[in-house]
Amino acid sequence: MMADPLERGCPSGLAPPTEDRASDFSAFVRETGREKALSLSVRGAKCGGCLSKIEGALQALPGVTAARMNLSTGATDVRWTGSLDPNRVAQTVRDLGYGVSARAEANDADLHKAEERKLLVAMGVAGFAAANIMLLSVSVWGGHGEMGEATRRGLHAISGLIALPAIIFSGRHFFSSAWSVLRKGKANMDVPISLAVILAFSVSVWATIKGAEHAYFDACVMLLFFLLIGRFLDARLRRRAYSAALDLASLQNRSVNRLSANGEVNAVRAAEVVAGDKLLLAAGERAVVDMTILDGASEIDESLVTGESLPRLASAGSTLFAGSVNLGAPLTGQALAGTEDSLLSDIARMMEAGEQRRSGYRKIADRAVSLYVPFVHTTAALAFLGWLMLGAGVEHAIMIAVTTLIITCPCALALAAPVAQVVASGRLFRKGVFLKSGDALERLSEIDHIVFDKTGTLTLGEPELMDVDSIPADILVMAASLARASRHPLSRALVAAAGPGHMAANVKEQPGLGLEAEIDGKICRLGSADWTGAPQDAAKGPVLWFTCGDDAPVRFDFRDTAQAGTRKTVETLQAKGYELEVLSGDREEAVAAVSRDVGINRWTASASPAVKVKRLEALRAEGHNVLMVGDGLNDAGALSLAHAALAPGTAMDISQSASDAVYSGGPEKVPFILETAKRAQNITRQNFGLAAIYNVIAVPIAVTGHVTPLVAAIAMSASSLIVTLNALRIEAGGRS
Description:
Elements: E1 30-32, E2 35-43, H1 48-59, E3 64-69, E4 75-80, H2 86-95, E5 99-102, H3 105-142, H4 149-182, H5 190-210, H6 217-252, E6 255-259, E7 265-269, E8 278-281, E9 291-295, E10 298-301, H7 303-306, E11 312-314, E12 319-320, E13 325-326, E14 331-335, H8 343-359, H9 364-389, H10 394-407, H11 411-430, E15 433-435, H12 440-444, E16 449-452, E17 464-465, H13 473-483, H14 489-498, E18 508-510, E19 514-519, E20 522-527, H15 529-532, E21 543-548, E22 554-559, H16 566-575, E23 579-583, H17 588-598, E24 603-604, H18 609-621, E25 626-629, H19 636-641, E26 644-648, H20 653-658, E27 661-663, H21 669-703, H22 709-727, H23 729-732
Parallel strand pairs: 16-23, 16-25, 23-24, 25-26, 26-27
Antiparallel strand pairs: 1-2, 2-4, 2-5, 3-4, 6-7, 6-8, 8-14, 9-12, 9-14, 10-11, 10-13, 15-27, 17-22, 18-19, 19-20, 20-21, 21-22
Helix pairs in contact: 3-4, 3-6, 4-5, 4-6, 5-6, 5-10, 6-8, 6-11, 9-10, 9-11, 9-21, 10-21, 10-22, 11-21, 11-22, 13-14, 21-22
């Protein structure tokens, strides 16, 4: 049997550039000092065992210093010293039975989408075929005892003609997977599935030729349809996981203005930047490497990187991290490292480490399958041998074995988790929550500790002017006329509070200090205490000062207010027994104030992405299952590392991609999400219990020959219906 292109990672009609069109991987080798590196895209790896096998085989090659694979994306990086042939590296992976090509981001994205499309088409074909065969089967059942043999045989033959192409097309995913493990003397869940489908179809063909009363083409195709639902959901999960890495890569793949020795400005790819290069960062441009400022002064927006809600002044000697945005004047800096050693790359590695941990997470379905596969094989084989020993004919013994395979067919088992996921996902979606991860519900149900980011998660993420009514109207109007010339968040908040109005003429801005303009013959200033002559000891916190002429400075206080309902949400979560804390990159006074307002006692301020990851690792070491709720790039590593993760709809794309669910609105959705997850997991466990009870009752009946394959197919479908109806209780909101 030929290996399925999907299993090897290459969908029909899409050929990887290196695997099918070129066999030489030498052109894709990168030299980094004394080491050589090769990035591969590996396809077909689906579990932690696959990951260990691939990494172990690569690390065993002579000269290999590192081999690391991301199971979610298939990205595999190999580094070595010496004269190792890169084609041998690729062949090592290929010899293990996996597809491999040189890694190309666009091609990988296309392959992930193509895999999902292929499964969706296969599911549609199986569903269409099953519906049509069932119509013919109903006619046979309805005409039982009255229908002539020729008519019945004709209907069975038509069913077989419909089933054959559907089985070949929709079943190849399972057949190729089963064949690949059988060749290595092992078995997986696809082996009994493939065996049941092939034997049931073969027996049905034989029964049709003999003119027997029953055939079981409907059971074959219906089984494939049900199972493809689960495979489609799994493919959707893998593509979502991959999109996080792609989003982060897009931030690092921008062009950079590099200064030559004679002062010429040349646009180069970010990947070409090395430590020591002089770079020009224009106003409004985002840094893609870490750098030290050599010349110039400007306000820098670091909210993407640190979570700090207010810009800071960067001048000669300041360190600027990749991901920061230059808000003001052009800056000249010196690269501290290339893109691979920047803060963005550090975050990418944190995300990858988190994805690896999640990929190794054993779901309930995995544990059930590990028991199911040997059970069904052994039961069917013993039934076949037992009936032969009792003197039954080979055909009758095969029929009993097929009946056993059909009646123990894993439809209910395969549906137990997916149908609960589908119903729970629908319930969440109608409340503005988009569930993105296939095993998220199980992990969300196990949460006992919740870590919130502050800015944009607990708070609105925008400063708000306090005590507006106490500020003289004329002072507010004049201050706003200066503020309209600035993009600073505090200036925008002041303008929002003042409402529509005019902008002062000839406003001048001094980076890090403030604004200045002449109003009615007086020099008016809006900005820092230094700029306006305000007392230094009164300048703490997010404030602006305004002075005009010889008038005393007027203070404008700002705060990042908590979102509506946040305190009630905190009280609800605490009442349910969850431990809560705030982990923010913002200033200490801002984090302390918000934490106090919403009722969370434990908080950490000025937390870098690495500090956030370290805190989550410490909580894991203490035995906690942590939920991380965040919205910025500085949260992406922690979101990926957490046991489960949520992001608001206003979050960055990369944070949404790194999370398990995205919600609209405020943090009040968190208790609803956790409650739905726990209910879904209770229902899932009940479904596995129902499937087990069904097998305990059905298997003895099938093994003793008291049911036909037709009755077995009906019983199998009934078990699937039972778990489906039970899952609907999630939507109904009943007790679980």
